[in-house]
């Protein structure tokens, strides 16, 4: 009898595992259809799979996502609402529901979804990001940047909040540093994202049009209320003479090399910062020039960048191999903009 019981458990486990593998396979097939733009087949596969697995929350979310991509917002809401009401609801369900309402321009309901989601999951970066984007649509930029900053603090390794915060600060007349810092962090976190090139161009423009355009960076630093930003501007002020020759990938490599040396001597102990530590690591490995070319070369002068790479092929190949072998993440506790 005991042997029969154990055998029954084994068979039951095998059936459950087979069912889970089938669901996983169907979800992957649907995602492949979505990635290829065949949304009708994605909906078909997910609908069939969900008919026999009505309690599978992940299937329902994928189906709602497919409807969302199809811009069938009514069906998307019909599908995601039961997930929101279930005990298995997670941050992505709230995010999707909010985004569907936002796409319908039902901003009141969208805001309700984001707020409910953040009440249950206050440390979710994507929810902060999307709620900030909604507030930006509603012409509430201060509310938007507050959400993006909170998102950076709560989920420092999620890139979306850095992108939106960088764009926000770039638009501010008096900001001199946060667009540069957040933009470069995003470029490293999301280097394969199509938005990466636009943010690199924005960072380069911020160096030209906001930071080194000033005739007196020391005075600008003294007027800066945020201690971290003040320290960064003070350190850049020491290299303002180099900027007189123009802001190029080459001159920025020199400026930023000297910046790191001065920063480490004066401020690194009080303000540990992953981005600056990464710069130092690249300097030690002899890859910082190549990194600055990767960061600024293509958006400054594509032909000049290609010429530089041809002349420094071994160095650039070494940097590329290193860059693609690691994931850049910001640790907790380095959100100095809020201090």
Beta strand %: under 5%
Count of helical stretches:
18
Radius of gyration: 25 Å
The helix/strand order is HHHHHHHHHHHHHHHHHH
Question: How many individual β-strands?
Answer: 0
Main beta sheet: none
- Intertermini distance: 67 Å
Low-confidence stretches: 4-19
Structural class: mainly alpha
- Basic shape: globular
Rounded average pLDDT: 91
Helix content: over 70%
Tag the structure with descriptive keywords.
mainly alpha; 74% helix; Tetratricopeptide repeat protein; TPR_rpt; repeat
Summarize the structure.
The chain has 339 residues and is mostly helical. The chain has a domain at 176-339. The protein contains 18 helices and no strands.
Describe this structure in words.
- It is a single chain.
- By secondary structure, the chain is mainly α.
- The chain has a domain at 176-339.
- Helix content is 74%, strand content 0%.
- The protein has helices at residues 2-36, 39-51, 57-70, 73-85, 91-103, 107-120, 125-137, 141-154, 160-171, 178-189, 195-211, 217-222, 227-237, 249-266, 274-284, 288-300, 302-311, 313-324.
- The protein starts with a helix and ends in a 15-residue tail after the last helix.
- Mean pLDDT is 91; it is low at 4-19.
- It holds the Pfam family ANAPC3.
- This is Tetratricopeptide repeat protein.
- InterPro entries: CellSynth/LPSAsmb/PSIAsmb (IPR051012), TPR-like_helical_dom_sf (IPR011990), TPR_rpt (IPR019734).
- TPR repeats lie at residues 91-124.
């Amino acid at each position: 009898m005991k042997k029969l019981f154990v055998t029954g458990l084994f068979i039951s486990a095998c059936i459950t595992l087979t069912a889970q593998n089938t669901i996983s396979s169907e979800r992957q097939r649907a995602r492949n259809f979505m990635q290829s733009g065949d949304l009708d087949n994605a909906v078909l596969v997910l609908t069939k799979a969900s008919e026999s697995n009505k309690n599978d929350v992940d299937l329902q979310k994928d189906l709602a996502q497919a409807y969302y991509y199809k811009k069938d917002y009514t069906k998307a809401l019909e599908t995601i609402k039961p997930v929101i009401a279930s005990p298995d609801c997670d941050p992505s369900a709230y995010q999707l529901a909010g985004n569907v309402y936002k796409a319908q321009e039902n901003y009141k309901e969208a805001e309700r979804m984001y707020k409910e989601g953040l009440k249950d999951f206050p440390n979710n970066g994507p929810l902060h990001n999307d709620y900030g984007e909604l507030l930006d649509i509603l012409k509430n930029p201060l509310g938007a940047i507050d959400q993006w900053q909170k998102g950076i603090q709560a989920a420092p390794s999620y890139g979306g909040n850095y992108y939106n915060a960088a764009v926000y600060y770039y638009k501010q007349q008096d900001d001199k540093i946060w667009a540069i810092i957040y933009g470069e962090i995003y470029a490293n976190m999301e280097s394969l994202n199509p938005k990466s090139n636009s943010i690199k161009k924005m960072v380069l423009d911020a160096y030209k049009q906001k930071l080194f355009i000033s005739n007196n960076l020391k005075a600008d630093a003294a007027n800066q209320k945020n201690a971290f930003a003040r320290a960064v501007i003070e350190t850049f002020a020491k290299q303002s003479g180099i900027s007189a020759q123009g802001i190029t990938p080459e001159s920025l490599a020199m400026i930023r090399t000297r910046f790191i040396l001065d920063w480490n001597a004066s401020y690194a102990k009080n303000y540990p910062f992953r981005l600056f530590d990464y710069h130092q690591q690249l300097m030690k490995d002899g890859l910082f020039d190549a990194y600055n070319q990767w960061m600024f070369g293509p958006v400054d002068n594509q032909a000049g960048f290609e010429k530089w790479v041809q002349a420094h092929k071994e160095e650039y190949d070494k940097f590329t191999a290193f860059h693609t072998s690691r994931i850049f993440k910001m640790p907790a506790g380095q959100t100095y903009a809020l201090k």
